[in-house]
Amino acid sequence: MIPPHLIAPAVRDALAEDLGHGGDLTSQAVVPAGTRVTATVAARAPGTLCGVPLAAESFRATDPGAQITVHRDDGDRVGAGDAILTVAGDARAVLAAERTALNFLGHLSGIATATAELVARVAPHGTRIAETRKTTPGLRGLEKAAVRAGGGHNHRFGLDDAVMIKDNHRALADPAEGLAALVDRARRRVGHTVTITVEVDTLTELDRVLPARPDIVLLDNMAPATLAEAVRRVAGCALTEASGGITRDTAAAVAATGVDVISVGWLTHSAPALDVGLDVTT
Q1: Is 44 a catalytic residue?
Q2: Domain extent for 68
Q3: Which of 57, 195, 200, 255 could be stapled to 125 by a disulfide with Cβ–Cβ 3.0 to 4.6 Å?
Q4: Residue 2, exposed/middle/buried by CB under 10 A (0-12, 13-18, 19+)?
Q5: Active site residue: 72, 99, 156, 185, which one?
Q6: pTM, full prediction
């Protein structure tokens, strides 16, 4: 699920950050050179996995001869105590990669786990769960892959792959232009394959923009009753996306309004990491 071309560069940069110029001073000082070890990465809590290839690559990067057995893959549901992968190799190298491997696996699995929970809560309504661009700098592709591993869908990846007209764009536009005019101008500017989203805060704004037929209307911080009325007014002429302040507890009620997509920023910026650990077995 994680694009292969993202794995090695991410691991390289993370290990460089952790090992610095001198490497793992502790292991070099206390673990005899040439010591071999077998260790298992396991879940300490139930969750949905993402980042297994990154964890495996972390150990391979410090010991190219390491033997790695993968027991569970990205997208798998695990319980507390379940083995995820086993690594056998040079002890110093395994310890040097330990934190990098666990950081990737715990962080991305936390996102996947939170996404899977939201997906389950809205499943009866057929609503899609998506993240936003509120991602960790440098990790966007990985974090968006984690959302997919949890059964969610991806929002735009960057500013260059879709138009999204938000409140600050409107504030800086010509005040004589209305929302519909902004959509028309954007459509003339971009290619025919580029979708156009307009953020609206009220039903009045929605009514003003619908004649321009944007591809998506982002219904921002609306109560469920207002969302339901917005969906009725859109009547299928655009995709409807609800966003703003949506939590685990409110997601089902939001989905019940009939919106097509719920976008949630905290999936990538605040989801708690899944507790995973590495245990030396021999």
Answers
A1: no
A2: 4-118+272-280
A3: 255
A4: buried
A5: 99
A6: 0.95
Q: Which of 134, 156, 185, 233 is catalytic?
A: 134
> Where residue 70 sits, what CATH number does that domain have?
3.90.1170.20
DSSP for 209-249, please give it.
HGGG--SEEEEES--HHHHHHHHHHHTTSSEEEEESS--TT
Catalytic (active site) residue 144: no
- How many domains is the chain partitioned into structurally? 2
Query: Among the options 166, 213, 232, 248, which is catalytic?
Result: 166
Written as six digits, the tokens of 79 are 């319980």
CA atoms lying within 13 Å on the CB side of residue 126:
4
> From the candidates 24, 98, 199, 241, which is the catalytic residue?
199
Active site residue 160: no
Structure confidence by residue, pLDDT tens digits, 147-206 = 999 999 999 999 999 999 999 998 888 777 888 899 999 999 998 999 999 999 999 999
18 is known as an active-site residue: no
Q: What is the DSSP annotation of 97-132? A: HHHHHHHHHHHHHHHHHHHHHHHHHHGGGT-EEE--
